[in-house]
Predict the 3D structure of the following.
Amino acid sequence: MNYPMGTDTAANRFYLTLAIYSQRNEFDAISGRLGVEPTDCSERNGIYTWRFSTLDACADDDVSAHAALLLRTFSETSDALVALARAGFEFRLWVFASGEDSNYSFVLPDALVAWLASFGADICVDAWS
């Protein structure tokens, strides 16, 4: 069955953030291994988080546009992501969506889900209206 990608009703805001978590400050090492600069880094309660977000890089509210940007950005990093996972880093893809209508939906593209599974990333959805 062919389901449409994107939202059924317009979302005011939609973006994806790949977060990499570690017990030590390894921001430079992560960036160096991936060849990608983060959009944000932080430390909270001894957990260090390296993030790459599509928020400012993609104006489209369609999930497939954000997924395509993420996949293009990290297209050469699969081996490095698997190596980071084996070294104990944890991964989450945060899916942020908000809209005026309380009833909206989206479908994550198969290629994005398969890519995330290749290095054991969790998918977390943060939706609000």
Confidence is low (pLDDT under 50) at residues 1-9. The first helix runs from residue 27 to 34. Residues 6 and 65 are 9 Å apart (CA to CA).
